[in-house]
Amino acid sequence: MTRPYFLYKGFRFLVDTPLLFLSLWVADYFSGEYFFSGQHSFVYIFLLLSIISWYSAAQVSGLSRDLRSNKFAEEIIYVFITLILFAIMLTSFLFFFRESIHLSNYFLLIYLGILFILVLSFKYIIRKYLHSIFYSGRFQEEIILVGSTPAAKDFYDTINLHTYYGYKCIGFLDDENKKLNGCPYLGTIKDLSKILAESTVDEVIIALPNSQHEQISACIEACDFHAKRVRMIPDLYLYAASNITINTIGLLPVINYRSLPQDRWANKILKRGFDLCFSILFFLLIGWWFMPIIALLIKLTSKGPVFFKQERWGLNNRKIICYKFRTMYNGSPETDENGGFLQATKNDSRVTPLGKFLRTWNIDELPQFWNVLLGNMSVVGPRPHVTPLNISSIQNVDRYMLRHLVKPGITGYAQVNGSRGETSAPGSMQRRVNYDLYYIHSWTFWMDCQIVLQTIILTIKGDQNAY
Questions:
Q1: Fold classification of 141-235 (topology level)
Q2: Where in the chain is the domain with CATH 3.40.50.720?
Q3: Structure pTM?
Q4: What is the C-alpha to C-alpha distance for residues 234 and 229, in angstroms, rounded to an integer?
Q5: What is the DSSP string of 389-443?
Q6: What does the pLDDT look like over 129-183, one tens digit per residue?
């Protein structure tokens, strides 16, 4: 780890302390309790308890980890979880000082609210500043890739596309393949020890197949000898059809197969409860007045029905009727002269001017909240595809049908990661399915919250792939 990056991590960790103090001062001013004008010893005790509670909560929630490779929407969820844990810990500590420190619930509510805003603001500023540094080519950690597996290629493309991750791959090693998407070839795997001795590499990423366990062990030994950090990209593509966890028994790593998270009744109830609450809230706050306006505009600008109903595949391949606002001219063809399904393309002549606006801002998807209330869709899940697209993808896309193990969603993990719109480009549908399977296998309630938040952010910014 470079010294500047070490300083960054220290600053990112310690900056929360003055934010706790500042939040207390602001809350004291706006609440009118004038806590600071009382006995100063109690102020110090409160600050000490706040610091202990905050950093303990950050360790439990994962906020203290390096989140530069996570989207900011994910970091918001981490901050929110930390704030909940912080509130529980702090109020528990304050219970023991209830005879000395008298604080109202109003004061604590203001304190927590201001702390949430300040922490989020500073995390965002620090993130953007770090991104600007990485984009300029400074403070990047130099890494070496060992292996040229598909996972290695994906990793190399990812760190090149997202410079703000802070990694620079100086080359790769492999005994057979000497090409890796433009990454410099440094030699065979046996050359690793020599290269580590002669270069200033910060980290080694091993992306070898499981069958090459001897080479993997040799690489780890070389990294240990030269005191270099090493990480592995596990070759788990063969197990992508199952949800897996890895733990250890003694010193041995063990792969555990288990049911999907959404197969458990507690999770089913939690997800269905979230879907119902979110959908009802949408109709109460927005849908009852906004959707009639959109319906009227569609009726005034083009002939035909307001809503567009289309057969799609849902949970366990069951056919469902998916509702959308109509965005194309009435009677537009859905298939070409060969009978193939016509996906919407950029500047598609079938899309009305209003329809283009609705697609850009995801407004055409709003009627699908009715599907959520009916129970055949979820707020978050793999996007449902039309029947012809499903049939054509079954033969061409690996593990495609596994995306129907859960309910389809209005938004999904693939969509917030840029895999949206037309899928005619080679590998685009496979990439979308890979995101969907990752979501299915890794589902948590907080992951749904993160995806919803990212969807809102993308909607406000405008999605370039929405057409």
A1: Rossmann fold (3.40.50)
A2: 141-235
A3: 0.75
A4: 16
A5: HHHHHHTTSTTGGGGGGS--EEE-HHHHTT--S---STTHHHHHHHHHHHHHHH-
A6: 877 877 776 777 889 999 988 888 888 988 887 777 778 899 999 988 788 888 9
